[in-house]
What does this fold into?
Amino acid sequence: MSIDTPPISPQQYEVLHGGGAEAAELAKQRISRRRFLRRSMLAVWGVSATASVAGALYYMFPNLSGGFGSAITVGKASEFKASKPADFKLEIQGVYHRPTARAYVIHLDPSTAFLLKGDVLKEQLTSENVVKDPKDGSYWIALYQKCVHLGCTVPFRDNCVSFKCPCHGSHYNVTGEFLDGPAPRSLDRFQMVLQGDDVVVNTGTINSTVAHPDATTKLIAAPTVECSA
Ligand code: FES
It folds into this structure.
């Protein structure tokens, strides 16, 4: 009997099959069970299909999700104490990891001694996504945590005041400028803005054009302390 067969009354069953009313009642229950199973299967299929479509949309349009790939508020400006490059300490001053944005927020003290001056400095800051805070003259950068060599997450090392990749040793200073190792360029940067007191990192806009610095583009001096192995 097809699972689509409509239920019949005990009397109809008796006429058709010569069975008793009790047998007909049992047959009716079997049909109801099959109908229940069929509806359950359809419900499971519907939920799976909806989840698949939602997943596909997330990967196609990540910036609609509010997660990585969109603009993310990573905290209040007052939570990120500024520091001179030589005094950076992870999560205490100068450098802060924000995993939701896969970024390090860098906050440089207004007195930071840049190696470049005047218009050259201004142009370099703009091209490297360095934001000058209009309130106090400090500088902000959102560095992508991913090593530009082969993609490992690069930790910040307090002991040598720089980023050192554990995979193949690429080494970057506190502003993400390349120092040494196999990386083809400096760390990538996200666009970031200060909105009132909010620090917002736009993880959908990545600047991956910050080259190996030379004497004409280097922003800050290399750290004086060597990283231990
Ligand atoms: S992945 Fe970082 S140095 Fe290779």
Notes: The chain has a mean pLDDT of 84.
